[in-house]
Amino acid sequence: MSTVHDAVIVGAGFGGMGAAIALKRLGLDDLVILDRESDLGGTWHVNRYPGLAVDIPSATYSYSFEPNPYWSRLFAPGAELKRYARHVAEKYDLARHMRFDAVVDGATWQPEASTWLVRLAGGGSVEARYLLTATGFLSQPRMPDITGIDSFAGHVVHTTDWDDSYDFAGKRAAIIGTGATAVQLIPELAQQVSELTVYQRTPIWVSPKVDFGVPEVVQQLFASVPLSQRAARLVGTSVLEAMMVSGVLHYRRAKVINQLAERWCRAHLNRQVPDPALRRKLTPDYSFGCKRPTFSNDYFPTFNREHVHLETTSISHLDATGLVTSDGRRTDVDVLVLATGFNLWDVNFPAIEVIGKDGRNLGEWWRATRFQAYEGVSVPGFPNFISLNSPYSYSGLSYFTTIECQMRHMERLFTALRERGADTFEVTEQANDAFLARMRDLVGDSVFALGHCATANSYYFNQHDEATLLRPTSTVSALRAAGSFPLDAYAYA
Ligand code: NAP
After folding, report:
1. Residue 447 Cβ contacting ligand 1 at under 6 Å
2. 54, 56, 224, 407 — which has fewest CB within 10 A?
3. Which residues form a coiled coil (predicted)?
4. Is 325 touching ligand 1 by the criterion CB < 6 Å?
């Protein structure tokens, strides 16, 4: 006889922990949290590259119900996020549910038993009434498909698998990629290596980062008067809301905010890089917000240094000693850093195989129809399944906004389930279709539809060139919807 647990949560990052807290509040305590890594924290466990820090103010990038008064900086370093994750796991009694090094192969709905069977790689399975996937958006590293990369005889490291034992001092290094990760890493690498060549395919919009150490007296104030930290959170959230929601998602109505953000980034670059040719290379040719922007004060100045070179000619191939660009120039290096990001749309969505009712395969269904999920949470044909990393689920810029919306949705849904004395829930096709139609309509007002995004190479767009990652509403509206969606959007049985 196998044990049927209340729920299996796949992923022990902040999303999975938020889901577990929501379930515990609902009285569901028999939880199994599976994670392929050897510890909790998700992205903040995996990423350890030098310069790693949150690029959203920490008072905002944390659970609203679990503020941390002791962030050392306005933008906390990565290690503090990992410590915060551990603190949350302990305080909310989550650690005892977690199983690490547990790679999930797939999950199948079992209609006779109304349970999910979750298969583990290497054998074994876990059965539960509810399945929640919290596998992250940025969790499948992208390895660049460049000719000859395997023949490179030097050291190769991807930013998600940082090699702490490798000594970069005095080495000739190359880095491929100029996304938010590279923006944090490049200034750090430049301090260690003798030569650094940065291979940029698409420049990134970079805003100044107003960062400073939080004085102890302010930390004490946050600890003794929580309202003061809530006010700080509100300020951070409002700035992000103006930039990302008004300027990007509500572009039709608030184009001027987008233009201001772009001008703000341009002025930052102009102030920091005196050479006009270099400046041109670092200036994006797509609208602000088509691609995720970032914040940094030391990224641009790094390119003014003698030993740092910006290479914008495409890479033709690699060989044993270095990289060759399409115009035939070669750069020999000792170490190659891949800051090449993540593959969202081919190997994520979903990150594991999920088979619902009548054998419906979630990944295949999303690709054969459209990427869709009701309120970014549930999918027709998949009873008792909460998909936290779904199309149109990401709300605002701080991931915690998304997590808390989803926690609220779960609270309303599971309460309704209990009040009806039902065992299963499943979103109706009608509710899902109406939500998808509304999202597609709203995306039409965003920079993704109305701006110049063709050259952005943005992971906000899927393989069909549709911007299906971000929820195109304000975070306030997302939060409201999570607490008031019509209960008949679901069928209960
Ligand atoms: P990313 O934004 O996807 O950037 C990957 C970079 O690699 C891009 O510049 C991309 O160029 C380049 N690239 C990929 N394949 C390539 C190839 N074959 N040849 C040449 N260039 C190639 O990934 P990321 O920088 O790791 O950041 C991902 C996300 O993580 C961020 O957007 C952000 O949401 C999150 N992040 C957050 C923080 C934080 O503090 N909260 C910090 C770091 C990252 P193209 O643009 O041309 O494709």
Report:
1. no
2. 224
3. none
4. no
Between the CA of 84 and the centroid of ligand 1 the distance, in Å, is: 25
Taking only the tens place, the pLDDT of each residue in 25-77 is 999 999 999 999 999 999 999 999 999 999 889 999 999 999 999 999 999 99
Residue to probe by mutation, ligand 1, list 340, 394, 461, most atoms within 8 Å of CB = 340
Cβ 195 vs Cβ 169: under 8 Å: no
Strand-pair partners of 31: 7
What is the CATH class of 149-209+252-286+296-338?
Answer: alpha beta
The C-alpha angle with vertex 264 and arms to 260 and 269, in degrees rounded to 5, equals: 145
Judge if the beta carbon of residue 457 lies within 6 A of ligand 1: yes
Q: What is the distance in A from the centroid of ligand 1 to the CA of 367?
A: 24
Of all protein residues, the one whose alpha carbon is nearest to atom 3 of ligand 1 is 341
What separation in Å is there between the alpha carbon of 118 and the centre of ligand 1? 31
Helix (H) or strand (E) holding 188: helix 180-192
Average pLDDT over the chain, rounded to an integer: 96
Atom of ligand 1 nearest to the CA of 183: 25
Q: State if residue 181 touches ligand 1 by the CB under 6 angstroms criterion.
A: yes
pLDDT of residue 1: 53
Check whether 2 has a pLDDT greater than 80: no
Ligand 1 pocket check for 333: Cβ under 6 Å: no
Give per-residue pLDDT as tens, 102-136.
999 999 999 999 999 999 998 999 999 999 999 99
For the segment 254-277, the average pLDDT, to the nearest whole number, is: 96
- Superfamily of segment(s) 4-140+344-492: FAD/NAD(P)-binding domain (3.50.50.60)
The first and second tokens of residue 62, run together, are: 């944390």
| Angle, CA of 22, 23 and 26, to the nearest 5° | 95
Residues spanned by CATH 3.50.50.60 within the chain? 4-140+344-492, 149-209+252-286+296-338
